[in-house]
Design goal:
This protein is of the alpha/beta class. The protein contains 19 helices and 30 strands. It starts with 16 loop residues before the first helix and ends with a helix. The structure holds adenosine-5'-monophosphate-propyl ester.
């Protein structure tokens, strides 16, 4: 048995014995530990082996069978929880719907029947392109019920982004809505889905949910109204027990290349890990009213709106709209209306609401709140303090939760469900049980306390991705090649002398804009498809609310004449190609990009120019003139701005 000092954190100074012992056991006897957690769920067949680890591929609970929809709805509908609230839905316009667990159960069955009637089978891919309305979790669970694999595509994505994802995953079925409400406007989702279908002709059937009542084009034989399909649906569909490593979903996220990665999650390991971590982090109780403000199009929504909370039989709030619509106190209003006890959100949202001022909170009774959570990007101490003081009334724990699409479940966070640790504003604190996290240097050796290094995970964990859809080599190369034997998270971190982790953002070429993950390569490829652009490089600039914002450096084709109008056109082109989340803060024209002698674009230099920080070592540059060019045009730009 390893000595306690070999643990990744040393909490001598803190009285957290219970957490420390629990953690130590999870690392020393992982299979026994995770089997114990797995027994908290119901299985149709118990596993033969807890783990098959054939690095970098892990298969958890081998031989076990279960159904995620059964765990999230049937399990509760059989008990007193049938009359408990599952979902409080709040529409942007103030309309609301309350679904009990028995209603949710009935809806999931009926939607599953709709899918079966259309010919969806176990293992088929179903793409879901829906706003934040109850139909989204219901369709996710309906897919899980019949063993179909859902791919949720964020409803803010463009037709091209939708087509790329649908095409990559090979989905023949797409579910969308006529439109979505956003900031009082109606966004035409079905029209975007039609455009995407023209680009990705695999789609055979489109189910259309009526949300806004706006007119839509319906293609005979392909497009079907959900309401019509429900008229012939059965009220009961038997949940199909699937193998523990049967994929529950594929979710696309950005990596360092232009092609998004289809992260594949299992059913067994994913459910076990999420069920356990959710309890540890949120200390969920029967009477909790839990609100995760993320969109279900991201992993946070999958794990922390749908699968973990519903598996616990929790009451969740689902909000359709923008945080500041129709007024900037909309969130505080929702908290008061539903008596929210747990609020889980992002630093970007916190900073935005902080900007509007605490007078908006003072108008509402927020005393129901017991626990606060943050996810998606580093939270700066100032925003943390504001969240703690004004939203939590200085009485609530803040769980700063670090995890990723790939990890499936929360990995590093305070765990008040086990034992409270002293908080440090801006630190995600300690790894959760079963998570062997470490900070290492360039050579993969543990970095000394206080030194920045790469965050790695040294043991497989049940919630980990099965792989990348259709691309095992990329899975190996992206996560397991940089530090042999360890999963490379792509993040920089520091561990302090108490063992606390401080996340320092991405170490690779991935951007975090308002908590959304975007790849520089993906944006660059999109900019380069503009007819007047020869090539482009994209970097991030620090931003007071968004965390990071996008700055584009474009080299124009010879025939193009630089103008502000062209900058605007390029920005629009990008929004159209990827979606509004990819709106650049600035587009700059340069005559050439700074490159190394081997031809690699030196984004570090561009980043320094964009952020107005020292350029650093330029000795590897192919041609120093390009940097002079850049700084000159950038200086000019700043002067123009100052004048304006
Ligand atoms: O850089 C880290 C940041 O978000 C990345 C993962 O992004 P995504 O897969 O979109 O999932 C986000 C929601 C789980 C990480 O590599 N990140 C996530 N949580 C935190 C964070 N950075 C700092 N602190 C966090 N709590």
């Amino acid at each position: 048995m390893p000595a306690p000092s070999s643990l990744p954190f040393e909490t001598r100074v803190w009285p957290v014995k219970k957490l420390k012992d629990f953690y130590a056991r999870s690392i020393e006897q992982p299979e026994e530990f995770w089997a114990e957690q797995a027994h908290k769920l119901e299985w149709s067949r118990t596993w033969d082996r807890v783990l098959d680890w054939d690095p970098p591929f892990a298969r958890w609970f081998v031989g076990g069978k279960l159904n995620a929809s059964y765990l999230c709805v049937d399990r509760h509908a059989k008990t007193w929880r049938r009359s408990k609230v599952a979902i409080y839905f709040e529409g942007e316009a103030g309309d609301s719907r309350v679904l009990s667990y028995s209603t949710l159960h009935r809806e999931v069955n009926r939607f599953a029947s709709v899918l079966l009637n259309l010919g969806v089978k176990k293992g088929d891919s179903v793409a879901l392109y829906l706003p934040m309305i109850p139909e989204l979790p219901v369709f996710m669970l309906a897919c899980a019920r019949i063993g179909a694999v859902h791919t949720v595509i964020f409803s803010g994505f463009s037709a091209q982004a939708l087509a790329d994802r649908v095409g990559d995953v090979g989905a023949r079925f797409l579910v969308t809505a006529d439109g979505a409400f956003r900031r009082g406007k109606v966004i035409p989702l079905k029209a975007t889905a039609d455009e995407a279908t023209a680009l990705s002709p695999l789609i055979e059937k489109i189910i259309v949910v009526t949300r806004t009542g706006m007119p839509v084009n319906m293609t005979t034989g392909r497009d079907l109204r959900l309401d019509d399909l429900l008229a012939n649906a059965l009220d009961h569909v038997e949940p199909v027990p699937v193998e523990a490593d049967h994929p529950l979903y594929v979710l696309y996220t950005s990596g360092t290349t232009g092609k998004p990665k289809g992260v594949v999650h299992s059913t067994g390991g994913y459910m076990v890990h999420n069920y356990a971590a959710y309890q540890w982090v949120f200390n969920i109780r029967e009477e909790s009213v839990y609100w995760c403000t993320a969109d279900a199009g991201w992993v946070t929504g999958h794990s922390c709106i749908v699968y973990a909370p519903l598996a616990h039989g929790a009451a969740i709030v689902l909000y359709e709209g923008a945080p500041d619509f129709p007024a900037v106190d909309r969130w505080w209003d929702i908290i008061e209306k539903y008596g929210v006890t747990i609020l889980y959100t992002s630093p970007t949202a916190i900073k935005m609401l902080m900007g509007h001022g605490e007078q908006w909170l003072a108008r509402h009774d927020l005393s129901s709140i017991e626990l606060l959570g943050s996810v998606g990007e580093p939270i700066n101490p100032e925003a943390w303090q504001w969240f703690y003081k004004y939203v939590g009334g200085e009485r609530c724990t803040i769980v700063d939760t670090w995890w990723q699409t790939e990890t499936g479940a929360i990995m590093i966070s305070p765990a008040p469900g086990i034992e409270c640790v002293p908080m440090k504003p801006g630190s995600a604190t300690l790894p959760l049980p079963g998570v062997d996290a470490a900070v290492v240097d360039e050579a993969g050796r543990p970095a000394p306390p206080g030194q920045r290094g790469y965050l790695v995970l040294r043991k497989p964990w049940p919630g980990m991705l099965l792989g990348l859809y259709g691309d095992p080599q990329r899975y190996q190369a992206a996560y397991w090649s940089r530090f042999p034997g360890a999963y490379n998270t792509g993040d920089y971190a520091i561990q302090d002398s108490d063992g606390y982790f401080w996340m320092l953002g991405r170490a690779d070429e991935v951007l975090k804009v308002s908590g959304h993950r975007l790849s520089t390569a993906e944006i660059e490829a999109a900019v380069a498809t503009h007819p007047r652009v020869a090539e482009a490089a994209v970097v991030s600039r620090e931003h007071s609310t968004k965390g990071e914002s996008i700055v584009v450096f474009a080299v124009l084709r010879d025939s193009a004449i630089p103008s502000d109008r062209l900058k605007g056109e390029i920005a629009d082109h990008l929004r159209k190609a990827i979606g509004p989340i990819a709106s650049p803060d600035e587009v700059d024209f340069v005559t050439r990009l700074p490159r190394t002698r081997s031809g690699k674009v030196l984004r570090r230099v561009l980043k320094a120019v964009a952020n107005d920080t020292p350029l650093g070592d330029l000795s590897t540059l192919e041609d120093e003139a390009s940097v002079e060019d850049l700084t000159r045009s950038y200086r000019q730009l700043k002067q123009e701005r100052a004048k304006a």
